[in-house]
Amino acid sequence: MLSALTPQNLTTTVVSNIDLDQIQGDVLIGLQKFAQRFLFFQIQDVAGFKTLLRRKIAQRITTTRTVQEREFHLRDHKDSGNATRLPNIGVNLSFTASGIGKLILATNNGQTLGDASFAAGPKKQAKSLGDPVDAAGNPTTWLPQFLNATIDGVFLITGGTDADVNSEANNLLAILGATIAASFQENGDVRPGLEKGHEHFGWLDGVSQPGIRGLSTPFPGQRLLDPGVFAFGYGPTLNPPLPWMKNGSFMVFRRLKQLVPEFDQLQFTQAQTLGMDPVLLGARLVGRWKSGAPLALTPSQDDSTMGADAQRNNNFDFSDDQGERRCPFGAHIRKTNPRADFGLPNAAGVDPQTADVDPRRIMRAGIPFGPEVSVTEAANGKTATDRGLMFVCYQTSIQNQFEFLQISWANNPGFIFGRHHPDGTPVTVGFDPIIGQNGAPSRARTTDEPVPNYPTGNVRGTLNEPADFIVPTAAAYFFVPSMEALTNELSA
Ligand code: N7H
């Protein structure tokens, strides 16, 4: 069974003080998931909900300890040649600011929990995130359930099949009865056949995740970060803003619709204009080939063995590619994790990632939703049915991590700063061609595309994206409490 996104090389001898029994399972390792239900709800009867949370729901929540044990079990299962899917039902529960406000009456009307973006919620943040908005700043592409109704919480329910997760969703709904009202539900599913583990544009997802000090043994090139970057109470966030937030995390959810046939067409038409192979252009938009192999290591042809090899597929830091011969500065993985670009090692020997990039990292745990592209959609080059990514990420600061990546890096044509073409003129990198959003009404984006021309050198080019190929259709910000907070502060 797939774990959230990435091969986490879990160490068998856990030497750290990470409280695996307190942190919910999707945060650091990721619930094992082939299918996942997102069950958004409103709390209708606060007292009744609290009683059921304490007595019947908390025991169904899957902790990091359980997820870790399942990882080891799954390895044995696979190693013994067994290809069957195990049900491995997982349940996580988290709350929006309005949900926390209802559960902790002393501070009713919402909680900031030390994070202004969490308190504001993504609807208020939509404009600054670059989402399409009307004159009043309200998102224009979101589903009505996320615009008009209050969402207090969400259950993430994972398992081996849709039937497994549907059955657990029904159990939860039956237990909670009228204490909640489901406001929106949708299933995500790992894609079928050879597309397993690939998102809808076709790229292998979950190749690069941060390692966690004390929990994982790093793969070559994988950074080991303090658990405090993702869960409160460790390292830089030793003291959570409120004591009961220890072992909790913030979760960002975004339902991102992907216009797959349109994006496929763009790669063909732009490749023609730029005079390059569309497959290479696609790889240069992401920074990896569809197999996961990084351009930084294999710039002119795919290497699917490398793509699948965790010992190699992150073993680079861009420091030897300041001329963008291998990977453009604008590529999605270079914009969202610039590795050593962000201040190359300086005379003082400062490790640039530790200083600048590490505190911005996020732990991604999304899953694709929607059907495969139909023959008719492919022929027409036009999306007829919603599909995309249920994007989920964890962090201890929404403002300094997810929002910073989206706003200050992906949407910022200037980032990465201070680079020059060989003739000395400054490089304006442009938007992240995958997730970058131009808040202007036209939405049109450009990205610098130094067309590779071996062996002479790159020819300057510009990628033109006249429209968005990823459209945000829902978003919500959550706090993922520890087990202790669920059974004490939030259900008292
Ligand atoms: Fe991205 N894609 O298919 O092109 N992403 N992403 N992402 N993303 C990554 O390493 C994709 C989104 C990050 O450490 C890969 O897993 C799509 C948002 C970060 O090297 C691919 C969508 C944000 C990384 C994609 C989407 C990020 C990353 C390479 C939306 C944050 C790790 C495989 C539909 C604001 C970078 C991998 C690193 C990798 C795609 C969304 C961030 C293929 C389709 C919203 C930090």
Helix content: 25-40%
| Counted beta strands | 13
Summing up helix and strand content along with how strands pair, one would put the structural category as alpha+beta
Topology as H/E string?
HEHHEHHHHEHEEEEHHHHHEEHEHEEEH
- State the helix count: 16
Integer-rounded radius of gyration: 22 Å
Mean of the pLDDT scores?
A: 92
Major beta-sheet overview: 5 strands, antiparallel
What sort of overall outline do the alpha carbons produce when their principal axes are compared?
Answer: globular
What is the first-to-last residue Cα distance?
A: 37 Å
Keywords, separated by commas or semicolons:
492 residues; alpha+beta; 2 domains; 5-stranded antiparallel sheet; 4-stranded antiparallel sheet; 16 helices; 13 strands; 26% helix; globular; disordered N terminus; binds delta-meso nitroheme
Report on this model:
The structure is a single chain. The chain is an alpha+beta fold and 492 residues long. It has 2 domains: 35-257 and 475-487, no CATH class; 259-357 and 416-473, no CATH class. The strands form 4 sheets. Strands 7, 8, 9, 10 and 13 form a 5-stranded antiparallel sheet that branches. It has helices at 25-28, 46-57, 64-79, 97-103, 116-120, 122-129, 144-147, 162-176, 260-274, 278-286, 304-307, 332-336, 352-357, 375-380, 402-410, 483-487, and strands spanning 35-43, 90-95, 153-159, 180-189, 211-212, 224-225, 249-258, 363-364, 367-369, 388-395, 445-448, 462-465, 470-480. The protein is built from 16 helices and 13 strands. Bound molecules: delta-meso nitroheme. Delta-meso nitroheme is lined by residues 199, 201, 203, 205-208, 256, 258, 286, 288, 332-333, 336-337, 362, 388-389, 391, 402, 405-406, 410, 434-435, 470.
